[in-house]
Specification:
Rossmann fold, alpha/beta, 3 domains, about 450 residues, 6-stranded mixed beta sheet
Length: about 450
Amino acid sequence: MWHQALQEGHLPAADRDWGDPAASVSLRTVIAELRLCELTQSSAAMARQVLGVMLWHLDRLIDRPSSESRQTAIERMAQAFRAEWDTQRQDWEQVLALFKSLGDLANLRWDSLHGRLQSRGWREAQRIGRLLDTLPELARFIDAIGRASRRDDLPPAADPRPRIDAPRPPVAVAITTELLDQPSEVRGVKRSGQLSRMLPSEAAMIRHPVLRRLWRARFAEQQLLTYEDAALLTQWQLRPDAHALAAAPEAPLGQGPLLVCLDTSGSMRGAPENVAKACVLQALRTGHASGRACRLLTFGGAGELLEQELALTPEGLDHLLAVMDQSFDGGTDVQTPLERAIALVQDGAYALADILIVSDGEFGVTPATLASLRRSKKALGLRVHGVLIGDRETIGLLEVCDQLHWVRAWRRYATQAGQAYADGFSPVHSRSLTAMYFPNAIRRDPPTEDN
């Protein structure tokens, strides 16, 4: 009865006192003050943990010293129970904050979870979780992925159109328009050809006898470092049909399994790596919240493919922490994960799965793989979604993906301020792309009076 009541989110009847009313009242008071029933609700693992710790302290009452009164021993027991659960509640709140839902944590027992909370991967997962809170658009994009129907036995939605015989007054609706590149709050730095938003470091090159050629080349390429800002314009309009729009049902979130292809190449190090790990964490949250299977395919160079199941189980948590603690490095071979994902979709367990590619887009797809993917899309209804963490769209990514979410401001998510890539790493294979594509833009000879 205690176990059932804790899972229901409340304490059992007062007469369920284990034959010891005084000790039971002390423990019930501590449980109520610490609000442990909020943690045990709908969680058999947490209910067992609270019940087990409580019984262990009750069993210790018989070992009190002969000089100590029983009432004093009960008070000491209640204090020890409170001290233990003060620590455990904080740890469990970390788990809830990371995964955003207690959900079905029955497979995560405290004895198996406690050691993982001290690992470096868990600290990295907490950092990525805080970063993910600043990316609501990315979370909504991943939540909407999926093509399986929610329920087949649900009744049809009510007609949201207003009745003609029941007119309603118009409602003022706020319409917000984003004015890009208008003077407002500075969001970051980007590359463009806007002279009015140019950084002082770029303007300093104009009068330099040599660097002015570099400035001209960057201006021609639209690669000058400029401020990135945007203004929000809010206008209020009277909408007679606003009540009808408000009554319309929300679009259902995606359903069905998820196949996440994660690019772990060297070009993803630093800030792109942080955003990519946030995508993995959100995929786990999405799959766990709706009971959907989620399989992770991490890929790098040729032959570097690791397939793991993401779930809130001891093994699935180990897989997540391993990804969080991983440093991205290597090449980019997208052929193998795409072919593996297509094979999984053709299997029964993942027949209704959609593919999510998380990459900076620096890859290409062979015609054979692209043809196989298109056949699967046509025959099985497969859809491919992409999260682009980079500055530009690439042909390879556009050919593969049906829907794309572009994280343009990826530099602001760097671990260290002002350092987009980790350890000063740069994915560019040449230090001077300007010299490669504009050979005469930068001259090697020293400047003269005429030049």
